[in-house]
Amino acid sequence: MLKRERQAYILHQLNLHNKVLSSRLSEAINVSEDTIRRDLQELADSGRAIKVHGGALSLSFSEFNIHNNNVYGKDEKQIIARKAISLIKENMVVLTSGGTTINELARSLPRELKATFISGSIPAILEYSNHPNIDVIVIGDKISKNSRITIGADAIAKIKSLKVDLCILGINALDIEHGITDSDWDVAQLKKVMIESSQKVVALAISEKIDTYQPIHICPLRNIDYLITELNPDDERLAFYKKTGVQLI
Amino acid sequence: MLKRERQAYILHQLNLHNKVLSSRLSEAINVSEDTIRRDLQELADSGRAIKVHGGALSLSFSEFNIHNNNVYGKDEKQIIARKAISLIKENMVVLTSGGTTINELARSLPRELKATFISGSIPAILEYSNHPNIDVIVIGDKISKNSRITIGADAIAKIKSLKVDLCILGINALDIEHGITDSDWDVAQLKKVMIESSQKVVALAISEKIDTYQPIHICPLRNIDYLITELNPDDERLAFYKKTGVQLI
DNA sequence: CATAATGTCGCAAAATGTTGCAAAAAGACG
DNA sequence: CGTCTTTTTGCAACATTTTGCGACATTATG
After folding, report:
1. C strand bases under 7 Å from protein CB
2. Distance between CA atoms of A126 and A145, rounded to whole angstroms?
3. Which of B52, B128, B142 faces A3 most closely, judged by CB atoms?
4. pLDDT tens, residue by residue, B86-107
5. Averaged pLDDT, A87-116
6. Is the N end or the C end of chain B the one with fewer CB atoms within 10 Å?
């Protein structure tokens, strides 16, 4: 990878995540951390990034604009996104729901990954379609203003006609008794059919959603193949879920 | 391989991959790296590539280009967008194509306007869905990376099933003899059915697209109800079009 | 304050660039 | 056709840039 190209990549990552870690960049681009540091130094010198111990921050951090467009719990969601990405193999067809965790996943997809992503989430589609090697298929229908995903009979019918390799759901609530639940009826309907249309189902949830529930039922825990949180799979808060046979990551 | 031929090949590779390595090119074309370097130097001097240590990058890497998100001919497009908006009445159902002119339109929609917009253009959908009073319906299908709109049989079938009040098309080329034409086959198919599915058709074009044509035929001028350019409707460059019965705005 | 993670510095190896030059190729012209 | 000029190309010597490594300093964190 050329130096200029690398720096452009770093800037791109900075725009997406507002922060980069030297360690992770060095892994991703496959150069030594020294090189990354020198790049960050140059970017900092030319005023395009703010260098800090361990990596760099986007310029938006320098300003006192704490009007943060930061998604709540962003770090946790990045951890979850990385774990989820490890399940996606070359040339898979992946169906994804909406939500900020999914957006984080979309932003974090490695450049080299070749796959097909199907979604009705506008922000996710945007990220997918910026990716050089990913084919994107859009589920059409009316956009729900709250969730910024397409909902309705057409969307449901379309999803029903699919049978994809992997379904990745950002979920709102789960507990042992009720399984996976949600607060939005339309979204719940969609998630139900998404689960039916997939070989394997991955549920993404930050730990604070564990042991909570919402009024609308989506599915029991046994319909989920993988549960991903930011916690270590051996964490005691997940002990009950381990017994249900869901694979924790 | 001749010099000219070689440079054309290099540019082609640049467009394809956004980067070239001197080493690879020298292998591929079977000339010394010196020669490649001289070629890259010339391409850089004439502003067709960005030379960096180890090879060259496509112009899209240039900071300048990225920094100003200036769309080409932005001012003209804003004028066109304003004129087009004047045709949209309360509670209309509007079908729009893709393209930068349409994006400008989407950005410029007045806050109070209540209407339903149907589109397969990702950037346009994004703008529409930010709007407080607009219902958005997404045409689903596979995303074409070039044009960032959904294309394919599903999209066409969906559009065929509609009958909307207004269709607003950003167009690539029009002249008296060929009518409206385009360079992308898939996009042209979509535009054809969009025209059929609408009561009234509006064509948007900056003046430099007037009296030009592209290989793929979309429709004759008589299928268009309104033609909007940044020019005054009485401008002499539009005189011929006036006679065809198209309403100029 | 101890420990691990990160950063800095100088250095050397490898890759890439530059320059001047001469041979080959192509073109110009009587 | 032969001679001259110009352009193009590759080579060799030398300069520069880039990169990773190791020794040592600094910072973060519990």
Report:
1. 5-10, 15-20
2. 16
3. B52
4. 999 999 999 999 988 999 999 9
5. 93
6. N
CATH number at residue A15: 1.10.10.10
Name the nearest CA neighbour of B32 among B40, B23, B41.
Answer: B23
- Asked whether A102 and A126 are in contact (CB, 8 A), the reply is no
Provide the CATH number for the domain around residue B244: 3.40.50.10470
Q: Which residues of B touch A127 (CB under 8 A)?
A: none
Each residue of A164-206: pLDDT tens digit?
999 999 999 999 989 999 999 999 999 999 999 999 999 999 9
In a domain, A68, yes or no: no
- Write down the pLDDT at residue B64: 56
* Residue B148 domain boundaries: 74-248
**pLDDT tens digits, B117-143:** 999 999 999 999 999 999 999 999 999
Residue whose CA is minimally distant from D16 C1': B53
- Cβ-contact B248, B218 below 8 angstroms: no
Q: Do B180 and B86 have their domain in common? A: yes
Could you tell me the pLDDT band of residue A76, with boundaries at 50, 70 and 90? Answer: confident
Q: Which of B186, B192, B129, B195 is nearest to B152 (CA)?
A: B186
Whether CB of A37 is under 7 Å from strand D: the answer is: no
Mean pLDDT of B5-24: 91
Amino acid (1-letter code) at residue A125: I
Structural tokens at position A234: 């051996």
Pick from A61, A85, A101: which residue ends a domain? Answer: A61
**Which pair of tokens denotes residue B109?**
């929609």
Domain identity same for B143 and B159: yes
Interface of A with B (CB under 8 A): 2-5, 8, 120, 122, 125-126, 128-129, 135-143, 145, 148, 150, 154-155, 158
Of A137, A220, A138, A151, nearest in space to A185 by CA: A151
The residue in chain B having the minimum alpha-carbon distance to the alpha carbon of residue A145 is B129
Q: Which nucleotide is nearest to A37 (CA to C1')?
A: C7
**pLDDT of residue B67 exceeding 60:** no
Q: Are residues A53 and A80 in the same domain?
A: no
Q: What is the mean pLDDT of residues B33-43?
A: 92
Residues of B within an 8 Å Cβ radius of A: 19, 21, 50, 52-55, 57, 61, 120, 122, 125-126, 128-129, 135-143, 145, 148, 150, 154-155, 158
Residue A245 banded pLDDT, cuts 50, 70, 90: confident
